[in-house]
Amino acid sequence: MKLLYKIIFIALFALGITKANAQCGPLSSTDLAWNQHNGNMFDIVSLNPVIITQLDMELSAGIHTVEIWTRPGTHVGFQNSAVGWTLAGTAVGVVGVVGSHSVIPIVLNEFICPGNRGAFYVTITSGSWVSYSNGAAVGNVNVADANIQILEGTGKVYPFGGSFQPRVPRVTAHYSCPPPAGPPANAGPDQTICSTTAIMSGSAGGVWSIVSGTGAFSNVNDPNATITGLSPGLNQFQWSTACPTTTDIVNVTVT
Q: Residue 55: how many CB atoms within 10 A of its CB?
């Protein structure tokens, strides 16, 4: 009988995990009255720990070069300057089809803690259009599921020019669901190299900072960022996560 109860418990536990995983993205916005311009900034709010991994957007017909920029927190108040934004990637040759969300082949790794938000800016560089909808108010929830909310945002003139508000992204947000506690900080193994450039190997969902020595990160939010300009001798770098708050330090020694 105990064995039977154990089997039933395992089956129910596995079913619960399956259902939870089934609810983990993607989420597509609700389209309203159509509009368009070069780009669209918007926020995503996390209800549970998530990692935003990819964004699909509706683009004007044609072949485009697309950039995705990210920043922690909201885009509100930061629409007109690249300061604080990180260029996550540039995709060349993205095909736009009116009425469809085009796959933008830029891999994201944006960890958002519960109750926090991340800002995203998807823009075309060539003067063509990103499609969006007219909204009611910046920050209103357009669509939500059990894990994230997609908020109304801002239309943009490329790159950080004029703004049009409120504008609702015509977007599909792909995301993964890490463990509820979030991944602990792991800065990766220490390295001894004879170069001024190194590739880091941190865990997901954190940010790099310099403890000692010198260096410039290709992307402070990328666990596998490339760091250049290392000093001879010992360089120390910290990888920090936000939920929970944990840190880890890696030593990179240049010989």
A: 26
